[in-house]
Design goal:
Number of helices: 21
Order of helices and strands: HHHHHHHHHHHHHHHHHHHHH
Mean pLDDT: 86
Shape: globular
Distance between the termini: 51 Å
Largest sheet: none
Radius of gyration: 21 Å
Number of strands: 0
Bound molecules: tryptophan
Length: 493
């Protein structure tokens, strides 16, 4: 099928297709890889409690705002959607900053995301060819370090991933994005549940459960809140203009609040289930849960190694994780593609390829430098996504005309609606603003941050694994280094 003409606006073919595409965007490596490493570095249960609150009170209302802006306009790109709705609301077109910042953040994210997705690809042949057979647990988890240390391999795998993303985006909304999401997401859910069951059986389920669900409230500090909110935005694909773009493909008659709740709920469910697939193994191995970015890649092979049929299962799961990553990365690439196709009136295919080349270059830099990787992740996750989402929420809460707003965010009983507006107008913006400011201080003035919030050694130790007491000073050091580079891949061993 020919790519849609630049001005012709695509539409999701059904509610199921939309929900799967939105869930496909939201569910990805953020849930599998980033959630576990963030929760691990931020004290487990304490992080998870704050995270759930962020999703419920900030994330889901913000999702509604982004969909509402997108659907309210018949424009093809997020920047134009906001500009158009702002004009019709007699507001400044400067509100389109939400889409600009979001679009740039999405581009930054997809660059390091492609590197991580490349790691996922690298693990597929390892399982398929039985390369873990006969290795010890330590040898298996050391493989991540070897991969991470080989720039050549990282680039090869990343290239495959970028090509896959470009191909699907070039195929367009219905033939590419929707098709991939509808086929792949349901199978992914099924395999994830199976994996979780395996991990709970063979791992240390008790230690994992109490670490995840019995929060140590004293471990909650501003840094945990900043990370939790950043993770919520990352995981829900918020603040990146993606949900505005996807909202603009949304036909009338689909209930935005309900869809937002479904997307938020499914995304959170996947993160939590993935945590339950990872942490029992972490504790069973005596690893420290704060060992960072490698957690996902180090624990699952170990888990699968020790069950019959593990290689087959592992191959299937990593293929599916790859699909989850692809349905997210196509959304990341879609925002800037939609914008440029519309702006330059070039074909989707050409634009997707050109942007893919850019992603490849920046991605290679991320593979080369862990510090650069960490900086892109931190600045996009902790600053840009929250800032863009803040602007979107303020716009819908305060500047969009009531008429437009009521047309988009509707279908709820009046009392629920009132609570929702309270969230959209006051609570969510205030919370985002506070967390954003703390994140900015943490990022750019770490000295100031430490003098306002001195590190609490007690809370740090709580974050360490019961089985990893020898790791005390590493944990303290990690806390100190945290504001510089949170996701620098640093496998232990
Ligand atoms: N949410 C996806 C995940 O969890 C990643 C993602 C897609 C994303 N779109 C985004 C992250 C926009 C930040 C911004 O894997």
């Amino acid at each position: 099928m020919a790519a849609p003409a630049a001005t012709e606006k695509a539409q999701w073919s059904s509610r199921f297709a939309f929900v799967m595409a939105a869930v496909g965007s939201a569910v990805g490596l953020g849930n599998l890889w980033r959630f576990a490493s963030e929760a691990g570095e931020n004290g487990g249960g304490a992080f998870i409690v704050v995270y759930l609150m962020c999703v419920l009170f900030i994330g889901i209302p913000a999702l509604m705002c982004e969909y509402a802006i997108g659907r309210a306009s018949d424009k093809a790109s997020a920047v134009q959607s906001v500009t158009d709705v702002a004009r019709r609301s007699n507001a400044s077109t400067a509100w389109s900053a939400t889409a600009w910042i979001g679009m740039i953040a999405a581009f930054m994210v997809v660059c390091f995301y492609s590197v991580v997705a490349g790691w996922v690809i690298a693990y597929i042949p390892k399982f398929a060819l039985g390369m873990f057979n006969g290795l010890s647990d330590e040898q298996i988890s050391a493989q991540f370090g070897a991969l991470n240390g080989s720039l050549g391999q990282e680039i090869v795998y990343m290239t495959i991933f970028v090509a896959l993303t470009v191909w699907l985006v070039a195929r367009g909304v219905n033939e590419g994005i929707e098709w991939a999401a509808k086929m792949l997401m349901p199978v992914f859910f099924f395999l994830l549940l199976a994996l979780c069951a395996v991990a709970l059986m063979i791992g240390d389920a008790g230690a994992a459960m109490s670490w995840m669900y019995l929060p140590d409230f004293s471990a909650i500090n501003p840094s945990v809140a900043v990370s939790a909110l950043g993770q919520a935005f990352f995981s829900l694909s918020l603040g990146s203009a993606i949900m505005i773009t996807y909202g603009s493909y949304l036909p009338r008659g689909i209930n935005i609040p309900r869809s937002s709740a479904i997307v938020g709920g499914m995304d959170t469910f996947v993160a939590v289930v993935a945590g339950m697939a990872i942490f029992p193994i972490v504790f069973a191995l005596g690893m420290s849960p704060d060992s960072g970015a490698g957690l996902f890649f180090q624990t699952l092979p170990v888990a699968l190694h020790s069950v019959p049929g593990g290689n087959l299962f592992g191959t299937a799961f990593f293929v599916l994780a790859l699909f989850a990553a692809v349905t997210s990365s196509i959304s990341l690439l879609e925002v800037s593609t939609a914008y440029l196709v519309d702006k330059l009136k070039l074909s989707r295919t050409k634009m997707a390829i050109a942007l893919g080349a850019g992603i490849w270059v920046v991605g290679a830099l991320c593979a080369y430098s862990d510090a650069f990787f960490g900086a892109l992740d931190n600045i996009s996750g902790k600053i840009m996504l929250p800032l863009a989402a803040l602007i979107a929420v303020l716009f819908v809460g305060w500047r969009m005309t009531k008429e437009i707003r009521d047309q988009e965010i509707e279908g709820l009983p009046a009392p629920v609606m009132r609570v929702l507006y309270l969230l959209i107008r006051f609570i969510a913006p205030a919370a985002i603003a506070i967390i954003l400011i703390m994140g900015a201080i943490q990022q750019w003035a770490p000295g100031l941050y430490q003098s306002i919030f001195p590190p609490q050694p007690a809370a740090v130790e709580e974050g360490a694994a019961p089985g990893a007491l020898e790791d005390e000073d590493t944990a303290a050091e990690a806390e100190q280094a945290e504001e510089q580079a949170e996701t620098v891949p640093e496998p232990e061993g």
